[in-house]
Design brief:
It is a single chain. This protein is of the alpha+beta class. The chain is built from 13 helices and 26 strands. Strands 18-19-20-21-23-22 form a six-stranded mixed beta sheet, with helices on one face. Strand 9 and strand 10 form a beta hairpin. Helix 3 packs across helix 4, helix 8 packs parallel to helix 9 and helix 11 crosses helix 12. The longest helix has 23 residues. The radius of gyration is 30 Å and the shape is globular. The relative contact order is 0.09.
């Protein structure tokens, strides 16, 4: 599979497009005025402890306080397994109190009306590893399936941490008696090996360990000097995180249209992934970089509810605060053999499209998929397998349930950042996010009821109705007989005035 990453950098925002086999699969957007907060580390102050929710609200210097649940607490100096057992028993009010200062990391950006989700289990990622401070945990990504390679990486981490091997001048690995320095921040840390470390040389892994240990030492030094609330560590900008997190052996090229950012990417690559330097390219073409592979058009399509399938079927995707729903329809596809075969082919094609849309739109949380009902159990299994296979390349953690008794498939996808729609769009001011407005007919009948209410309360010689063009047109045309009857009933004349700036649901009744 040929992959390419396109990076568009402007002073206002950075956009990253991941293209696989010429098809846009993922889009990341980061705006300078509203940068993502995930992985940032803060020194916060507890503003409120809620025993009933076993949670606390932490002031980290943002507009909204962050949310820290008891499950995201860890005890200093213990490993993950032990701490997870310890924090389940004591109530949160015995562990935290208002005004207490605490070091936390953002695991989920603020979404909608919710503040950032926080954890005290800090983690620092690099190209090949994730450092877990003050822990003896050594884990390996489940995506590295070769058991021999997994054991090599575990042993290498142990040896680098214990000082059995260490980087020396000339980049050779030589045995030494001690690890570098006596600083606890440099010796009492655990690591998780990322997928990108598979097959990577001992030298590069040890370089990453050394880099992360020194970074953690620098952050530890800020703990005592920074007053709460304050920022202790800010993650890399999006265009550099792209090189750290998204690039793999299948990535053929990274194109970026900013010369300044290109130079920074090259510097990062020389330091951490020198074998990838030749694949980074400065794009100076006449057309905007995201016009390549029709990326701009695909982004616009991803904001719509309807997704067309090649066969003629389509998906309907709706996002709510609680979940996202995806409905599969045969549409114009009528098949060739029988109904069951038509449904099966549509669902198979939909499974591939759904996997792409989840990544492209960055849909997270609970996702309910309503596939077209299949009677054949084997067809259900094949559709689920197709969905699982197409989601294997997803960077977010995804869980898929079996087909329920109602014929639905439940998916959970880890959500750390807002969806593409939430970043690029806002609720419609006309319908306030409902997606519908009252018909002109409904507004006319509301006006009739309001006129009766006003006449009973106030004494007026005549009434003026100010409304939008469609509503006034209906009142004077289709509802003219109703208006005449109403005038006779209340004994007062009614006149109308069109207000072009009014939305369809807006109107005023003026007493004259």
């Amino acid at each position: 599979m040929s992959n390419e990453i396109l990076i568009n950098v402007t002073p206002q925002e950075t956009r990253v497009a991941v293209v696989e086999n010429g098809v846009l699969q993922e889009v990341y957007v980061e705006r300078s005025k509203r940068r993502g907060l995930v992985s940032n580390i803060y020194k916060g102050k507890i503003s409120r402890v809620l025993p009933g929710m076993q949670a606390a609200f932490i002031d980290i210097g943002l507009e909204r306080t962050g949310f820290l649940h008891q499950n995201d607490l860890t005890s200093s100096g213990t490993d993950d397994e032990t701490s997870s057992i310890l924090v389940r028993e004591p109530p949160i009010e015995t562990l935290l109190h208002e005004g207490q200062e605490i070091n936390v990391q953002v695991v989920k950006d603020p979404i909608g009306s919710k503040g950032a989700r926080l954890t005290t289990r800090l983690a620092l990622p690099s190209r090949h590893l994730v450092l877990i401070p003050e822990s003896d945990t050594i884990g390996v990504s489940q995506r590295i399936e070769d058991e021999a390679e997994r054991e090599r990486l575990r042993s290498l981490i142990h040896e680098c941490q214990s000082g059995i091997i260490q980087l020396a001048a000339g980049h050779d690995l030589k045995p030494v008696k001690t690890c570098s320095g006596n600083d606890p921040a440099l010796s009492a840390n655990g690591f998780i090996v990322r997928t990108a470390a598979e097959g990577v040389s001992n030298e590069k892994i040890c370089k990453d360990i050394d880099f992360l240990n020194r970074l953690w030492s620098a952050i530890s030094g800020r703990f005592m000097t920074t007053s709460a609330p304050g920022l202790l560590y800010e993650d890399l900008p999006l265009f550099i995180r792209t090189l750290r997190d998204l690039v793999d052996t299948e990535t053929e090229k990274v194109r970026i249209d900013s010369r300044e950012s290109y130079d920074k990417l090259l510097d990062f690559a020389h330091r951490f992934i020198p074998e990838f330097v030749d694949r980074i390219e400065h794009y100076a073409g006449e057309h905007p970089i995201l016009d390549l592979f029709s990326v701009e058009d695909e982004i616009q399509k991803s904001l719509g509810r309807k997704v067309q399938l090649k066969s003629g079927g389509h998906l309907i995707i709706d996002q709510t605060e609680a979940m996202a729903t995806i409905d599969v329809n045969t549409g114009a596809f009528v098949g060739h053999r029988n109904l069951e075969e038509t449904i099966f082919k549509t669902n198979l094609e939909a499974a591939q499209a759904i996997a792409r849309q989840l990544r492209l739109r960055n849909l997270g949380g609970i996702i309910i998929v309503d596939f077209i009902d299949m009677q054949d159990i084997e067809h259900q299994r094949q559709v689920l397998r197709a969905l699982e296979k197409n989601l294997e390349r997803d960077h977010s953690k995804v869980n898929i349930s079996e087909v329920t008794s109602l014929g639905l498939v439940q998916i959970t996808r880890k959500r750390t950042r807002e969806s593409l729609e939430h970043i690029l769009c806002e609720s419609c001011p006309t319908c306030n996010g409902r997606g519908t407005v009252k018909t002109a007919e409904s507004v006319c009948y509301e006006i009739f009821r309001e006129i009766l209410r006003e006449v009973r309360q106030f004494d007026a010689k005549k009434l003026l109705v100010v409304a939008s063009q469609p509503v006034v047109n209906m009142l004077m045309d289709e509802e003219s007989s109703s208006i005449a009857e109403l005038e006779a009933f209340i004994g007062r004349p009614i006149t109308f005035q069109i207000e072009t700036v009014y939305e369809q649901e807006q109107y005023d009744i003026v007493l004259l």
